[in-house]
Amino acid sequence: MREKAIIPEIPIIPIIPEMPIMPIIPEIPVINFAKGASRTGSRSTTGNRKLEN
Fold first, then answer.
1. Pairwise CA distance, residues 27 & 44, whole Å
2. Residues 6+ apart with CB under 8 A from 36
3. Is the pTM of this model over 0.90?
4. In the 8-state DSSP scheme, what is residue 1?
5. pLDDT per residue over 1-53, tens digit each?
6. CB atoms within 10 A of CB 35
């Protein structure tokens, strides 16, 4: 019983350090996509390029 309880705890440990990384990765495209969506609608790359130029 105790061994089975330890097994599920092992995969939870590596998930904890990934948690802060995971939300940061999707935030980058969400911010860029939000700016592009407000400008072009679907193409976020063209919107960002227009802002840079």
1. 14
2. 42, 43, 44, 45, 46, 47, 48
3. no
4. -
5. 555 555 555 555 555 555 555 555 555 566 565 666 555 545 555 555 555 54
6. 15
